[in-house]
Amino acid sequence: MAVDIPESDPAVVARWQTRLASLTELILPTDYPRPIPQRVVEAEQKLEISEATSLAIMKLSLGIKPAGSAVSVSPFSVLLAAFVVLLHKYTGEEDVVVGSSSRSSNPLVLRMPITNEDTFEQVVQTVLKVVSCFVHIPRFSPDIDNFEKTEGEASADEIPFAQLLSAMFPPTEAREPGFQPSLFKVRFFDLTDTTPDTLASTTTSSSCDVTIFISQANTLRRLLPIEIRVVFNTVLFSNNRITDMLDQLQVILESAATDVNKPIGQVSLLTENSRSRLPDPTADLEWDGFKGAITDIFASNARAHPDRTCVVESKDMSGQVFDALREFTYKQINEASNIVAHHLLRNGIEREDVVVLYSYRGVDLVVAVMGVLKAGATFSVIDPAYPPARQNIYLSVAKPRGLVVLSKAGVLHDDVRSYITENLHIKVEVPALEILDDGTLKGGDVNGADVLLPDIEKKDVEPGVVLGPDSVGTLSFTSGSTGIPKGVQGRHFSLTHFFPWMREEFEFTEQERFTMLSGIAHDPIQRDIFTPLFLGAQLRIPTSEDIGSPGRLAEWMAYHGVTVTHLTPAMGQLLSANATHPIPTLRNAFFVGDVLTKRDVSRLQYLAPNTNTINMYGTTETQRAVSYLKIPPANINPSFLSQQKDIMPAGKGMKNVQLLVINKSGLLCGVGEVGEIYVRSGGLAEGYLGLDESKLKFVSNPFNPSGPPQTKKGASLPHYKGPRDRMYRSGDLGRYLPDGAVECTGRADDQVKIRGFRIELKEIDTHLSQHPKVRENVTLVRRDKDEEKVLVSYFVPVDASEDVNSLIRDIRDFLKLKLASYAVPAVFVPLTRMPLTPNGKVDKNALPFPDTALAPPAPASVSTEENEKLTPVQKSLRDIWATVLNIPANTIPIDDNFFDLGGHSILATRLVFEMRKHFAVEVPLNIVYSTPTVAGMAGVVEGLRGEDLNLRRPSVAGLSADEVAKRMMVKDTAVEDDVVDYAADLDVLDDTSISKDGLPEFKFPDVEGKATFFLTGATGFLGIFILAKLLKRFKNAKVIALVRGKSDEDAFSRVVDAGERHLLWEEAWVAEGRVEVVKGDLASDKLGVGEEIWKRLSEEVDVIVHNGALVHWVYPYHKLRSANVLSTLWTLKLATTHHLKPVHFVSSTSVLDTEHYIKVSETSGKVLETDDLEGARKGLESGYGQSKWVSEKLVMRARERGVPATIIRPGYIVGDSSTGVGNTDDFLWRMVKGCIQLGKVPRITNVINMCPVDYVAGLVTEVAAKEGPLSLGVFHSWHPYSFRFDDLFGALPAHGYTVERTDYIAWRTALMDLTLKTSDHALFPLLHMVLSDLPTSTKSPALDDAHAIQACEGSDVKCVDVATLMCLYLGYMVDVGFLDKPEGEGKPLVRLESWEAVKGRMVGRSRG
User: Name one Pfam family in it (predicted).
Assistant: First the structure.
């Protein structure tokens, strides 16, 4: 029984908080992404355990005795112990928390320590102790004796679970939406001890992933007839995973029964069912499958196709120039590489000597690489961008005997040259290698002659050096824990082995166009070069400007017709950042080098809709990417990506490659179990140059101790050591998915990857610890506000009184001499002491999260005096830096280096983009590298602005263009889920000069007389009806329409065309001079009309109807701002120039699409027209709704200052109630057409506010006709008859269409499947809306329309029930060819003769 403890007793609560402090949240492996907020769709799976498992449970139950007792252990406790073992193996956690049943209604919170060294019997004893004591066990306790002394205390402290939950998770506003507090994610219940109260009190289903119920099976079997029922969330887990889990539970029990004292780490989770899905570690991997040397295959291609284009290099040109190219044939590249090879051989280079290439990204690198390989030597690339000290370290490891300097790479730094002279024994040096445009090869002059001159005569002669699979051809570097990089010796086997398989798998041909985008000093550059050379395809090489300029790389790839590219995720982000140009030719994009996110893939799919995205896994030591996951294009399988988690899996091994996930006991892991990833392949690197560490990382396969046999083919291969069944220990942790693919879960050591670069944290700490003023230090990877990885070094200074700012500068400069630039931490955090764990290690979890705004690399504030000296451009630039770097602007000295403050290449791209956006000049990318200071960049910007004298940007409301841009609350458009503070723009734009002050007293115009109306948006669907209504309602009125067009005549013809298409136009209007069209543009100053016309309009116009807008449901606020918001501002200015004019602003009910107004509608019935719109100050998601909200608020403020103005809010506008003429480019009708094409309609009960267009136009006209509506202000266009989506879709079968009514989820899935076949689906342009959450996004509040009814009193303007018009609307859509004619029987469709005039002239939306 629970003790009746008052809820307010703080002592009891405090004791429980202590016992359950720092609970470890179990993160179970899922199959699908975990949605936020959590969604739950429950399913269940039952298992009646086998007789073998029943025998095992009985044996364990009888064989294990609780300490000090002769009573047997219950089968439930044995099963619970097996489940805890399973959770430990799934998560790697040593602190496992499970909810369980008890004899009281209170559930147990079971917290159990568990390690791989524990035996199964020890786990059972732990379970028994925890269950009997119901108390927290210290994680690091060496035994569990301390349970007994607290048992009585725990019993006395029993409190209701709800009270415990409230104490552990006190209510807070900081919770994420949908947050459900939980002390555990899994529950394990004995059904005989479980009551409905227990289930209800533990947790909601939305906060618990899996619940297991143990009960007696309904069977005649007498031996432990146990049934296991698993209730799980199908949003997270597949049925196959639950099947595997139940199989593994039985395997654990049967294994434990054979040896109860076996450590659980040695218990295998492999099941018979899963063996066929996982790799067999004894299988033959074609160890002698050498495809030939890349040099021989390349030479063969050159002989077969000498004139075929091999390499196309873009020239460095200023501006957007892509056609300045250097093209080289296979013959030219082959001959040039032969010359290099002969030169090296003639000067003493021997087999596998290292030749260092001081390089750049270009065709000369291809020539140099192939030349070194043809000489039988080993090439290693050094990037001139590395600090000289770092270059010397690489040279010290490589110990090269040859040096080839590419001419365009520049000259060696003096320090590097000195090191070479003093420490290395170089046999041969090519001082300035360069292939000229005509294919002539130059090597640089020495003593007045080109060094390659004696070898040119041998350009047609292959060197003939024989290469075999074990010949070493490459030397690449990877980080070393000692601070010295390791040189990885790559074998020729891998340089060609995978290409035949890739050619078949990815349908490669000699027509492919590849790119060279990898870092030149990193091993992926090899695949960039060798893949096209093997295939006989083309290699296309961009300039640095092409790669780095925001948006330009996509344009470059499109121009060159690139079909295949190799990228790191960081390079992929650079490609997609700010890019808008599609790349339709791209068919395959291979990613390797870092984790690939769903967001990375979706951005690339947007640019390259036809590309397969292939996520690959590999390391320098595996020489090549060795696994792959193919992600199909979105237009082929749009649902694929949505079913993936945020991080893409590594996939499965390529042909003759296995990813073996092995646990700490050396066993192959089962599905879901965490272990280290070993790569088993015949293509592994030879090892580390001169290091014994090779034996630790390249290990013999323990699953195949006898090794593979020698074959006849292998015996004939030259330079081959025979078959070696080896595995490379990657240090990466991973687990098998149910289908046998592998997902990575972290690192087994402290090695990380940031922006594609592999970094050893220990290397950083080794160098940092050598700084004389640093006592302790540790480096971690954190994520900044943009979720990008950032290196953070925590350190304790030797002298606590040391000036921290200068010390951090000194540390940074010190590390720059020791490390590559990408390995220098971005943030340094000084500490008074390091937090320690109980066992004396640094407690990394306790390290404070670095707020870069508080702990920037150089946080010294700039003085007020220095601030005052800054120019306006310098101040703006510093603000942009602060935004990009996420540090306070006042801590940025104008002479500090961008990269020293935490910048890197991706941030540099963002910086350039922000500068271009802010200053409206084409800032070159290299500005960040050539002048990486605020002062330097400001000078460049001012120079560029001085050159562009014709540039004009609109000023608004007295603000300069720069001020408007600076105060706009819009972030980088590449970040899709940024929240735009659109409301903040209201104060920026509001112009207090828009007022009645200083103008003649307002008199309502004589609209029945010869009034002049000014109308915007006249060519749009609603606009043309408003035009017609005004002219028909006011017989003597004139309408001046503002219309976009190439000329006044073109603009006028657009109005006529719109009128005719909608069966509205009357030629008499022209003859009577009642229609005038003015060419203009809503997005321009003064609506795009000249000063003279603006003046005339301000004097002649009596009434303004502002209906024009850019209607777009995807564009963000800032893209709609000019056309929608600024046009409203200029309209208000027109209304307050010369004399006051009534303004009637046609808005949209989208300004009410917030949760606030949904709740108002549900509680109060309707949203009133008198509402102040503050309920939408936040929460509007569409840019269109946001732009209308700001516009409306501007109108409201103008009304407060005496400007006569009204707001009309239409909802969905449908066809004319008499003629049926409608808008085919409309969401609702696209929905209808899409459903007909699909043959299915979704169940959606939301009300649709559908009003005929003639009613909405009539409402606008009646509001403008009288003075009374000016005092009412806002008018809702509301369909007073309840009409739902179900009614709309129900009209289809009623009129003969064959459609099946189905649940929304099923309909959405079917729609996605249809798009696999065609993009010609009516809903294809709107898939982003339909496939997100249509039932939610189409829900809107009910609206009060009392003002509208009052305005229309005495007129014939009435809203007709659209349910009575469906036969008319569907008839029109069929007659004009938008919808197919129904094939089934149903109500007849209306057909009007007048529709003949509009056939072939489909109606579209225009902003006017």
Answer: NAD_binding_4
Whole-angstrom distance, CA of residue 1248 vs CA of residue 1233: 17
Token couple for 1025 = 């009806």
Angle at CA of residue 1005, ends 1001 and 1006, nearest 5°? 140
Q: What is the pLDDT of residue 276?
A: 93
Asked if the domains at 330-466 and 498-655 fall in one CATH topology, the answer is: yes
CA distance 1176 to 729: 56
Name the band, by pLDDT with cuts 50, 70 and 90, for residue 1157: confident
Pairwise CA distance, residues 367 & 379, whole Å: 12
Q: What is the DSSP letter of 1379?
A: S
Give residue 896's pLDDT: 85
Given the DSSP bridges, would you call strands 445-446 and 449-450 parallel, antiparallel or unpaired?
A: antiparallel
Residue type (1 letter), 536: G
Query: Which residues have CB under 8 Å from 1352's CB, separation 6+?
Result: 1258, 1259, 1262, 1358
Q: In what order do the strands lie in the sheet with 789-797?
A: 774-783, 789-797, 827-830
DSSP sequence for 716-731: H-SS------EEEEEE
Q: What is the CA radius of gyration of the chain?
A: 37
Tokens of 706: 């006898």
Q: Distance between CA 539 and CA 313 in Å, rounded? A: 8
Query: What are the tens digits of pLDDT across the range 1015-1057?
Result: 999 999 999 999 999 999 999 999 999 999 888 899 999 999 9
Q: What CATH topology corresponds to 330-466? A: Rossmann fold (3.40.50)
Structurally, at CATH architecture level, domain 751-846 sits in 2-Layer Sandwich (3.30)
Beta-sheet pairing, 1038-1043 with 1012-1016 = parallel
pLDDT tens readout for residues 38-97: 655 566 788 999 889 999 999 998 888 887 676 788 888 899 999 999 999 998 888 888
* Poorest-pLDDT segment among 157-161, 212-216, 715-719: 157-161
Residues 6+ apart with CB under 8 A from 803: none
Q: Give the whole-angstrom CA distance, residue 684 versus residue 698.
A: 8
Superfamily of domain 1215-1248+1281-1340+1361-1408: NAD(P)-binding Rossmann-like Domain (3.40.50.720)
User: How many residues belong to the chain?
Assistant: 1408
Provide CATH code, domain 38-265.
3.30.559.30
Q: Among residues 272, 277, 237, which one has the least CA distance to residue 45?
A: 237
Task: Give the C-alpha separation, 139 to 130, whole Å.
Answer: 13
- Given the DSSP bridges, would you call strands 789-797 and 774-783 parallel, antiparallel or unpaired? antiparallel
Q: Name the percent of the chain in helix, strand, coil, to the closest 5.
A: 40, 15, 45
Query: What is residue 223's DSSP assignment?
Result: S
Decide: 417 and 443 in contact? Cβ < 8 Å.
Answer: no
Domain boundaries, the chain: 38-265, 330-466, 498-655, 751-846, 1006-1096, 1215-1248+1281-1340+1361-1408
Q: CA dihedral in degrees (207, 212, 215, 217; nearest 10)?
A: 130
* Structure tokens given for 1379: 């919808």
In angstroms, the CA 721 to CA 714 distance is: 9
Phi, psi of 835, deg, nearest 5: -70, 140
Euclidean distance between CA atoms 81 and 90, whole angstroms: 14
Q: How far apart are the first and last CA of the chain?
A: 76
Burial class (CB in 10 A: 0-12, 13-18, 19+), 640: middle
Q: Hunting for tokens 């735009």 — which residue is that?
A: 980
The CA distance from 365 to 337, in Å, is 10
Pick the more confident residue, 133 or 1161: 1161
* DSSP SS3 for 114: coil
Q: Per the confidence metrics, is the pTM higher than 0.70?
A: no
One DSSP character per residue, 883-908 reads: HHHTS-GGG--TTS-TGGGT--HHHH
What is the rounded distance in angstroms from the CA atom of residue 1054 to the CA atom of residue 1043? 8
Q: What is the DSSP letter of 1382?
A: P
